[in-house]
Amino acid sequence: HPHTVLHELMVSGVGHLGGATFSASGGKGFAAFGSDDPANRLTLRYPVNHHWSQILERAVLTGGVLAGPVMAEFSLFNGDEPEYPRQAPNFSRFGDSWSARLTLLPVAGLELSASRAKVGSPEHRPGAGTDAWKWHVGARMSRDLAGGDGYALLEWARTEEADGFFVFKSLLAEAAWSRGGHRPYYRFEQTDRPEDLREVDPFRSVRPHLENSIL
User: Fold this and answer.
1) 8-14: long-range pairs with CB below 8 Å, 24+
2) What is the pLDDT of residue 39?
3) Is residue 89 packed enough to be buried (19+ CB in 10 Å), middle (13-18) or exposed (0-12)?
4) Of 70, 65, 43, 69, which Cα lies nearest the Cα of 54?
5) Disulfide-capable partner of 69 in 105, 111, 134, 155 (CB 3.0 to 4.6 Å)?
6) CA 34 to chain centre
7) Using one digit for the tens of pLDDT, what is the confidence trace for 70-115?
8) Burial (CB count <10 Å: 0-12, 13-18, 19+), residue 123
9) Nearest CA-CA partner of 58 in 103, 121, 101, 116
């Protein structure tokens, strides 16, 4: 990923108690929010919505529990993003942001998920910027289909900044079918993207509301 040299480095542990499975993970990587890292999916290029549908490259601590077909996860992390490739997370801000994800596994090969997150000042490293409140709902299928491997993902995401003054939405659908040496793949995406430096309308509000920000 172009933001950073070290994209993800996590340590995880898994344990069992009764009929439930518990996990704990820590390091630098993805918070428990939204869909999988696009780099691990069947994509030819990174989708535009990766800041709306994932929370990436944070110093993060995540706990999870799986009981039957239901999985719940919660993460604590720092809100700031890297400003240049070799920059470490701002550890003094660890814990100013959180996320939660609930996943339902009704049948083999099908996942339904809903996520909620509050990210503190993602556009300003010292923490003086506005917060972002995020929603994500997704469905993913991966199973045998007509003699091949079928895959499909449908996701909707919404991010609100500055108490709802800025609202960004995303809808993405992708599907693939693999058999032998062939893999037809298609992706549709409609995503709002902030144009920080683009002077389209002289009356539009500047985002973010800071002179010292990540552009």
Assistant:
1) 8/37, 8/57
2) 84
3) buried
4) 43
5) 105
6) 5
7) 999 999 999 998 888 899 999 999 999 999 999 999 999 999 999 9
8) buried
9) 121
Q: What are the structure tokens assigned to 49, written together?
A: 């919505």
The token pair at 191 is 């995503």
Residue of higher predicted confidence among 162 and 209: 162
Is residue 133 over pLDDT 90?
A: yes
* pLDDT at residue 41 is higher than 60: yes
Closest C-alpha among 103, 33, 34, 116 to residue 70: 103
- 113 in Cβ contact with 135 (< 8 Å): no
Please give the pLDDT value at position 124.
86
**What's the pLDDT at 208?**
64
Specify the long-range contacts of residues 138-143, CB closer than 8 Å, at least 24 apart. Answer: 138/34, 138/35, 138/53, 138/111, 138/112, 138/113, 139/110, 139/111, 139/112, 139/113, 140/35, 140/110, 140/111, 140/113, 141/109, 141/110, 141/111, 142/109, 143/108, 143/109, 143/110
Supply the pLDDT for residue 198. 60
CA–CA separation, 104 and 132 (whole Å):
26
24, amino acid identity: A
What's the distance, CA 138 to chain centroid?
A: 11
Distance from first CA to last CA of the chain, Å, rounded? 17
